[in-house]
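Preliminary data (for renewal application), magnesium ion complex.
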Amino acid sequence: MVQAFLIKYAEIGIKGKNRYIFENALVRRVQERLLRCEGEFIVEKEQGRIYVEAAGEFDRDEVMEALTHVFGIAHICPVVLVEDKSFDHICEELVAHMREELGDKPFTFKVFAKRSDKNYPMKSPEICVEAGSYIIDHMPNAKVDVHRPGVEVYVEIRARAYVYVTSIKGPGGMPVGTSDRSMLLLSGGIDSPVAGYMMAKRGVRIEAVYFHAPPYTSERAKQKVVDLARIISEYTGPIQLHIVNFTEIQLHIYEKCPHDELTIIMRRYMMRIAQKIAGERHCLSLITGESVGQVASQTMQSLAATAAVCNMPVFRPVIAFDKNEIIELAEKIGTFETSIQPFEDCCTIFVAKHPVTKPAIDKIENSEKLLTDQIDEMVKKAIDQREVLDVHPE
Ligand code: ATP
Ligand code: MG
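Predicted structure:
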């Protein structure tokens, strides 16, 4: 019976002297994720791998589901632990496990053996040959193929023996927390949750900021953003969500500035505010869901005009994605259905019929001079009076 999981990681294996930092972070992320599973688990690292061992009853599907949400994991293998290491006993357990995993469909296989216990009486090549012939003798549906095996059979002799035949792909990437912290501008749309997911996959710890404009935007629109944060928190871990009231600022811009420049000027104010909160929260960068050419505010000139107010890097991981590609990812991570709920966004309420598509930065700067001194107060107030929510995975 499966009592353990072997976790193989890919990229963090090549980090030289700092490797332990990545391994320890991965162990912690796995431990945190398993806290929400039924049962008790011991998580240990050993020679470039991580083992999860269940101390008692557990639900295998639930554990697999949990582990496929932890960045840094390349493969997950459900393992049978064999206490009595006599070779016959290992073979019996192995075949029982193979029957359970593979059923009676015909399959081809190759045995891979690893012997960390150097006192074990058999060497690896001998283990492969003997285990292989035991399998053939006991499983009429099995056939050896050493070149292109359908099933890779692993026998590892350590303090105990470990046998496994199944390997499920993990999400890849790097453990969250190994690449510092970043502030995601999270709207209710399709793109920004995907952007946050992608950066977290590279090990970045995410916080998020959402701008709303009550009463022009509803409580439902806000709830949708909280829901999106919760969905991506399944991957990113808990997210602190900063909800900023943008109404006063938007109305002031609407009143004073040329209407075809509204979106750009509003976006510049969003960036300024996001950056301020990011600084307070020790975030080193901003993340947006912008994609070149998608809308008027995402032409090269518009992106330049928004980026001009930022002094920290702005990451736009979906910048070169087609909408279809972003949607595909949104479906995969489970945000799409929520993103397409039809609630108004604060940007869409005040948009002009014909927004500028090639804003010149100096012209935008001049238009911003039309705003009164009160705008700085309004920005400060919006930041000071923001609502902060701790969003946790379910
Ligand atoms: P999305 O689908 O992510 O909402 P979009 O296609 O609607 O993107 P825009 O509305 O131009 O594009 O927004 C571009 C980016 O600006 C968003 O991906 C997001 O990062 C940020 N953004 C836009 N509106 C808001 C908002 N109300 N609160 C926080 N961030 C926002
Ligand atoms: Mg949007």
